[in-house]
User: Which sequence fits this backbone?
């Protein structure tokens, strides 16, 4: 395997990929499928090399299923707001790109740390959201249901866990 013999290359490939995804997510609020697919492949190879097949696959499945559950809870919340408050939510806070990205990084981190990865991501994103909301309210530019990119918080959490 290429990555076992050249650890510098694996670090460069992974950090470049994560940097590209972060920039695209911040600017366009979308994570292209092909980048998520590349992340899944790289994370699987690196995860197996670091943790073995079982831990890698369990971590990826656990992270993906947990993120998918959060995605569907977000859809239910949007429907609830639309039904009860007559508010049309046009921005979905968590997209399928985030679900795949979380699953990809969970492959890299492995089980049981994949669940910790998601919790740390939620905590970091929540802290950022509170600060962001306070600043926007202070400058009278606050809008409800503003989405923030999750990839920087996923990467920060992965760095802390890996």
Assistant:
């Amino acid at each position: 395997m290429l990555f076992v013999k050249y650890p510098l290359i694996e670090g460069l490939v992974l950090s470049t990929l994560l940097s590209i995804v972060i920039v695209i997510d911040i600017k366009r609020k979308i994570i292209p499928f092909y980048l998520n697919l590349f992340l899944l492949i790289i994370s699987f190879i690196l995860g197996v090399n670091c943790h073995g097949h079982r831990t890698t696959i369990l971590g990826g499945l656990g992270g993906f299923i947990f993120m998918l559950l959060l995605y569907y809870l977000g859809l239910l919340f949007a429907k609830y707001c639309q039904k009860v408050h007559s508010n049309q939510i046009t921005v979905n806070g968590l997209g399928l790109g985030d679900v795949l990205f979380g699953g990809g990084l969970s492959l890299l981190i492995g089980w049981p740390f994949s669940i910790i990865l998601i919790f740390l991501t939620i905590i970091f994103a929540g802290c950022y959201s509170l600060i962001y909301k306070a600043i926007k309210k202070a400058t009278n530019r606050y809008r409800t249901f503003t989405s923030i990119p999750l990839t920087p918080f996923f990467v920060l959490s992965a760095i802390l866990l890996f």
Summary: The helical segments are 2-5, 7-28, 33-51, 53-85, 96-109, 113-138, 151-161. The radius of gyration is 17 Å. The chain has one domain: 2-161.
